[in-house]
Amino acid sequence: SSLIVMLPGVLYALLAGFLGAVASSSAKLSLGTDYLKGLHIPLRLLCGGLLFTCNAVMWTFLAKALRSSCSSTRTTVTTTASNFISSAFLGQLIFGETHVALWWVGISLTLSGLLVLHHTSPNLTQSHDSKRE
User: Fold this and answer.
1) 62, 13 in Cβ contact below 8 A?
2) Between residues 23 and 33, which one has the greater pLDDT?
């Protein structure tokens, strides 16, 4: 039952991280002269609008994730991991970027920490709730 209670917070955190990555990609498209030199002004403005929209929605999802979660640390780590992974895939898909092995080792360690945090947090929450009673 605690998994069902956690799910909305985790989902909001994952979406916040993804939207942060989309916002960064939009900024790179609208302001980065090296990537799309032939991009017309209206398309650059559209990417700029997407940047601000994604940021606004990202902050909304992050606030919802923090309200829904019993741990701000879990929310922060989940959002960060989601952002890193989304940035890697969007960078490869849109800009043809590749990442060195050390980067993947780092993101793997981040994800491992996230898994440890998610598996230990319910026990901490239960002990915290039992102290209240």
Assistant:
1) yes
2) 23
